[in-house]
C-alpha cells in the first residue's frame, strides 16, 4: 500500500503540473482553504476545475492499477473455498502465524479462537494439546506444515499436478524455517529483560487472558522466558542472538538470488512460511533491528503487500 501511495502522489503532482501551471500553483498554495471565500476563489476558474478533475481521474485510475499490482493475493475459485475454517491459536505463536499467512494469502475466511496458554480450556476437547489446530469443515488438522500441505492439496490441486524440480527448493526452505529460523527467534525476543517485557506486553495484549492473568503472565512469563532463552541459546549453539538473527535474514535474502520472491514473481509456500514466523516479531525491537541491519526489509515489504489484509473474520 505504501508503494501505491507514493506512486499515486507522484502521479498527482506530475499530472496536475502538466494540466495547468496555474492549477499546480493553486494546489500547492491552497489545498486546504481557510474559509469559504478562499474555497470559492480556489474553484472560481472553470478551466482550473476541469483540469483538476481530469488530473484526479487519472490519478484514481493509476491508484487502482497500483493497488491491484501491489496487493497480489491469490483468491481461490468459490467452489474450492472451505465453508468453515476455525483456527485455535496463540496470537504470538510463529507456527500459528505461518498458517495465518497461508490463509490470508489465499483469501480463505477463518475464525480465530484464542487459546489460554495456562488453562488451554479452549482445546480440552482435543487429544492434540498444541497449537495451531485448524478445523476445516469439521476435519481437524494439526502441525503447521502438515496443515498447509493438507489444506494446499485440497484447495490448490493444480500445484500437486504441476509439481516439478522447483518444489525441491521450496521444501528445502520450508524445512529451514521449521528447523532453524524459528529457533533463532526466542533468544532474540527474550534477549534481555526489557525485550522480554516488550514481547510479553504484546502477548498479553493480544492473548486470551483475564486481567489478573495478564499481570501475572507479563512479569512472571517475561522473567521465565528470559532464562529459558539462555537455555535455548545453549541448545542451538547460539553465541550472539542478534548475529544469528541477522545471519538467518541474510541467508534468506541470498536464497532469493535476485528474485522478488523465492517463488519468482509471486510468493510460494516457503515465502509464506518465512513471512509468517517473522510477522509476530517484525515491529518488536528484535524485528526492527533485523530490518535495519540486514537486506530483508524490501522482501518483507513485498510480502506484506502481497499477503494484504487479513481474511480473518471478526468475532
Automatic annotation (TrEMBL):
GO terms for molecular function: prostaglandin-E synthase activity. The keyword Lipid biosynthesis applies. It is found in: Endomembrane system. Keywords: Fatty acid biosynthesis, Fatty acid metabolism, Isomerase, Lipid biosynthesis, Lipid metabolism, Membrane, Prostaglandin biosynthesis, Prostaglandin metabolism, Transmembrane, Transmembrane helix. It catalyses: prostaglandin H2 = (12S)-hydroxy-(5Z,8E,10E)-heptadecatrienoate + malonaldehyde; prostaglandin H2 = prostaglandin E2. Its EC number is 5.3.99.3. Pathway: Lipid metabolism; prostaglandin biosynthesis. Transmembrane segments: none annotated. Signal peptide: none annotated. Belongs to the GST superfamily. This is Prostaglandin E synthase 2. It comes from Acer negundo.
Amino acid at each position: 500500500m505504501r508503494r501505491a501511495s507514493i506512486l499515486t502522489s507522484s502521479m498527482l503532482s506530475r499530472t496536475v503540473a502538466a494540466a495547468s501551471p496555474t492549477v499546480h500553483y493553486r494546489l500547492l498554495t491552497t489545498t486546504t482553504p481557510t474559509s469559504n471565500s478562499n474555497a470559492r476563489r480556489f474553484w472560481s476558474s472553470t478551466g482550473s476545475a476541469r483540469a483538476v478533475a481530469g488530473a484526479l481521474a487519472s490519478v484514481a485510475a493509476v491508484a487502482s492499477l497500483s493497488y491491484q499490482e501491489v496487493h497480489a493475493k491469490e483468491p481461490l475459485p468459490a467452489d474450492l473455498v472451505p465453508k468453515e475454517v476455525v483456527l485455535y491459536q496463540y496470537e504470538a505463536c510463529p507456527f500459528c502465524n505461518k498458517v495465518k499467512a497461508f490463509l490470508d494469502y489465499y483469501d480463505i475466511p477463518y475464525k480465530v479462537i484464542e487459546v489460554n496458554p495456562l488453562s488451554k480450556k479452549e482445546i480440552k476437547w482435543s487429544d492434540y494439546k498444541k497449537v495451531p489446530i485448524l478445523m476445516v469443515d469439521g476435519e481437524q488438522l494439526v502441525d503447521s506444515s502438515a496443515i498447509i500441505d493438507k489444506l494446499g492439496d485440497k484447495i490448490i490441486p493444480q500445484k500437486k499436478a504441476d509439481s516439478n524440480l522447483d518444489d525441491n527448493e521450496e521444501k528445502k526452505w520450508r524445512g529451514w524455517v521449521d528447523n532453524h529460523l524459528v529457533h533463532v527467534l526466542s533468544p532474540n525476543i527474550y534477549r534481555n529483560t526489557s525485550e522480554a517485557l516488550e514481547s510479553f506486553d504484546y502477548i498479553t495484549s493480544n492473548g486470551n487472558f483475564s486481567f489478573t492473568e495478564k499481570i501475572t503472565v507479563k512479569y512472571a512469563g517475561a522473567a521465565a522466558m528470559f532464562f529459558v532463552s539462555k537455555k535455548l541459546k545453549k541448545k542451538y549453539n547460539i553465541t550472539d542472538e542478534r548475529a544469528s538473527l541477522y545471519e538467518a535474514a541474510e541467508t534468506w535474502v541470498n536464497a532469493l538470488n535476485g528474485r522478488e520472491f523465492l517463488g519468482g514473481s509471486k510468493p510460494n509456500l516457503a515465502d509464506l512460511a518465512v513471512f509468517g514466523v517473522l510477522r509476530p516479531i517484525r515491529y518488536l525491537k528484535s524485528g526492527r533491528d533485523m530490518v535495519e541491519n540486514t537486506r530483508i526489509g524490501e522482501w518483507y515489504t513485498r510480502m506484506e503487500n502481497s499477503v494484504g489484509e487479513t481474511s480473518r473474520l471478526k468475532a
